[in-house]
């Protein structure tokens, strides 16, 4: 991921961003590996770890950490609440992928460059692994020692994640997605679906990082604008890549939206216009950062650029 993120930077700034991403990705992977269960019964632990570890872009935890650093302008301590927030967001994302890939949903066999969880472990265990990951995400926000010392922060983070994951967010967006197969949607309806299905969790990632650092209302408002634009841009480019890239590049099955006759930004706008729209959303995201202190912008800006310029 790091090479793509810094592709528009140069010199010392590019190297600093590459170093930051590499360090944070390694820290996040080790953090998750140390805290995911190793002894849950009936093969559940193995399925949960398979779903989360050794794959994925980790964009959501990187956004949590970048937003925290944008507000705090410091290194997060090893047991700081922001790590638990980043981990919880990644668990919700991983659980959603496990369930989305099931035969009753998108019926996919490839995810993150390897067989999907239900292919590897069977449908029943995949369903349970997703359930357990969702529950563990909220456990990580309310059970650790820091949550007992800072209950207001724990509640605020759990609230953000619940709203993003539930009927008003990711789950509701997925329900719309299933209901509109074979139908045409106008751009406003398509955007509403994807602000829920994809954008809500990306926005929550930014907000949870900022809240963990004690962001004030004005900073949160700016980061909200950034997160909303970035979340929609991510889905626009996802639709473009589904239509133009191959499965080996994506690490998941390519072209499945067209085969399933799902409305997408590509089916509505065409590839070229969809890319142009993503660029306009990128400009919105970067403009939202303009009023923040200088130290706050480089990492969030680089992640937004990666979202639009990525090839997988």
Automatic annotation (TrEMBL):
Any single Gene Ontology cellular-component annotation: cytoplasm
A single GO molecular function term of this UniProt record: metal ion binding
Domain of life of the source: Bacteria
SUPFAM superfamilies for this protein: Terpenoid synthases
GO biological processes: terpenoid biosynthetic process
EC number: 2.5.1.10
Cofactor: Mg(2+)
Pfam family, one: polyprenyl_synt
Enzymatic class: transferase
Keywords noted in UniProt: Isoprene biosynthesis, Magnesium, Metal-binding, Transferase
Gene3D superfamilies: Farnesyl Diphosphate Synthase
Classification via InterPro entries: Isoprenoid_synthase_dom_sf (IPR008949), Polyprenyl_synt (IPR000092), Polyprenyl_synt_CS (IPR033749), Prenyl_diphosphate_synthase (IPR053378)
PANTHER family per record: FARNESYL DIPHOSPHATE SYNTHASE
Family classification: Belongs to the FPP/GGPP synthase family.
Protein name: Farnesyl diphosphate synthase
Native species: Tepidimonas taiwanensis
